[in-house]
Amino acid sequence: MDNAMERPAAYLRMMEKVPTGAYMSAALASIAASATLRALGKKEAAIFVGQWPPTFLLFALAYKLLRPSREDPAEDLRAAADQASRLVASRP
Hints:
Layout: H1 2-16, H2 20-39, H3 43-50, H4 53-66, H5 73-90
Helix pairs in contact: 2-3, 2-4
């Protein structure tokens, strides 16, 4: 059972090392590479590379879903409430 619990944790630790923007960049780069390969007449290679962007985007999405933001929602709520109370107090 410990191995089953450790595997997702190891996966998340590995994903933490890669910023989400890198996945987006990889998706855009593979789209550009696919278009370039198609323009060079390498249709099969273009199709192969053109199937990569969804995988990169799913990596980014999985990371966001499995490891939510480390921001403190309570702190955000307090800041919004403080800002709202200042706006209400400043009205004539």
